[in-house]
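As a warm-up, study this chain.
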Amino acid sequence: MKQCADGSQAAAANPDIRTAISASYAELSDALRVAADYIAENQVEIATRSLRSIASASGVSPASYTRLARALGYTDYEALREQARTELTAREQASFQEKARRLQSDADQPLLPRQVSACIDNIQGLIADIDPSTLEAVVEQLSGSRKVVLIGALGSAGFSDYFAYLAKWFDDRWSVAGRNGTTLGSTLAGLDGKDTVLIISKHPYAHRSVRAAKIAAGKGATVVVLTDSRAFPGLQYADYHFIQRTESPHFFSSYAATLVLIETITGMLVARAGSDAEARIQEVEKHNRLLDEIENV
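Now compare it with the structure written out below.
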C-alpha cells in the first residue's frame, strides 16, 4: 500500500471506496462488514453527515468506522469521508460534461421549449419536496431572528443578493456576508443563538459556504440551507434545509425553483409582518424616489 511523505498509509491505491471495500471485505470482522455495507449503500450520507449520526443510523460504533477506514487503507475516517465527497463531485462533473455534449449533439432542436419544460417540472416539484410545516418553521425563525445573514458563492452569489434585495424592502435585519467591502469572517464573528444564517449553495459547492455553515453552527446560530442535493457537505450543520430540483437540458443547474422558493419565503414574511412591513416598504420607496434610484412612471 502506498505510503505518504509522513509515513502514513494513503488510499490512493484504491480507485474508489466500493472497490476498496470489495478488496478487503473477506478480511473484515462482522462488525466492520456491517459498517462497510452501510458505507457502500449510503455514500451521500457518509459525505454529508457526522460520524456520530452515521454510527447512530447504522447501529455500529464510531470506533468501528475508524477501524474500517484504516482497514481500507485510509489514514482515518475523515480521509474516507473526503474520498466520498470527491467521488460524488466527480460524478456531478461528469454529468455536466455529458450535458454539454448533449447540447452540442442536439443543436438542431429548439432549446427554449425544453428548458421551459424542465423549469416547470422543477417548480412543480416544490409542492412535493417542501414540507409546509418546515417552511412555516423557517419563516417563523427568520421573522424572530436578531439578524439574518445570507451566504452564497459562485453561481449562488447573485441569488443571495436577490434574496437580500427583496427582504430589505420590508426588513432591515438582513445582510449578505462578504459583500460590499466586508469580509465573510467579520460578518460571522458577531453571530450567536439569536441569529440565522441562510446559505444558498448548488453544485459545484463552494468551500466557503461549507466552512461558513460549520462556523455559524458552532457559534449557535440557526443554519438554513437551500441546496440541490443531500450531497452538499454543509448539510450536516443545517437546522433546516430545502432541496430544490435543478434538472435542465443546459449543462448547468437551473435556479428556477430556487427563485420561486426565495419569493415564497419573502412573501410569507411580508404577510407575517403586517403593517410594519407596509410602513417600511413605503419609507424605502419614498427614499428611492428622493434619491432618483427608480424611474417615476
